[in-house]
Amino acid sequence: MNLNKANSAFSIAMAWLVSTICISCANSPYINVDYRLPIETQPMITEDPVYINAADLRSDTAILNDSAKKKFANFSGQFALLIRESDNQQSPLGHHDLQQLFETAFAHRLNQLAVPIAEQPPSETLRFQIDINRFHIGLAGNKWSAEIGYKASLIENKKRVSSETVTGSAERPKLVGRGGAEKVIGEIFTDVINQLDIERLFRERN
Known about the structure:
The protein is of the alpha/beta class. Helix content is 34%, strand content 35%. The protein is globular, with a radius of gyration of 21 Å.
């Protein structure tokens, strides 16, 4: 076969493959979030069940900027969450809206600390409240960016007994499709969830 023709055929095939990958990514209604639990965590035993509740208090409710929306054309507002344990075991946990994304991730963190989770919010239950104030994914030029911010509180008898505010941001180079975006959101989501000093929240409660 003529070398030039072979190279041309290879180039066309690669262009078709890249185009197919991009179209497939753009058609997905979910954003993949890869959350990695901390490697080292000291267990904390408590007999008090904790009810986890997240509230979306963002002033800017747009998750994607205009450029990012083009890469996530069919985004439904749902996130496909994957939990990675410290021993690299992976657990896909289905699709979640923004509040459920935080609630599910924190349920795994609290479980790792041996904190019992309450399924229903009776009045006497201690509440682990997550107020989401920032969650944004942007594309500018050749860079993806992500910003996340929230306030976590322990509420007992309708009184806030301890709290901590956590924020984080990061940038990553743009890759083919939207892989760069999902990589940066997974990394920053992991950072801000694991950054919260949960043990301190419980100590201050006492």
